[in-house]
Amino acid sequence: MVDGVTISGEKIDVSQHVNMSKYVSTETDFTSYTKIMFIDNSVENQHDALFSTYCAKDTYPLVYTYNTDRQSIVDFLTSFNKENIKRISFAFHGPRDVQDSIQ
User: Fold this and answer.
1) Are the CB atoms for 14 and 6 separated by under 8 Å?
2) Which of 35, 52, 77, 95 could share a disulfide with 100, CB 3.0–4.6 Å?
3) DSSP assignment of 39-77
4) Contact (CB, 8 A) for 81 and 36
């Protein structure tokens, strides 16, 4: 649940408007991954091919949405051996202005 967001000194309660979803993966073996790429769903689905298909074989594409529960991602990351992970990257595109980010 989201507590609220402060924009220009005004606190806005967005918790009643957000249905959080748990991050789920069908993958079961994480031993071959040395990199994790967080990919915002808005980037993943922008073109004909999914963005994640361009990841190297040793990169796990963690595709998330605005409504993905943060704690479920943190819990999921324990699936990886922290000694194996050498790089974490992010692919996202934010809104043009703050007003758009609320919607």
Assistant:
1) no
2) 95
3) EEHHHHTSSSS-GGGGS-TTEEEEEE-TTB-HHHHHHHH
4) no
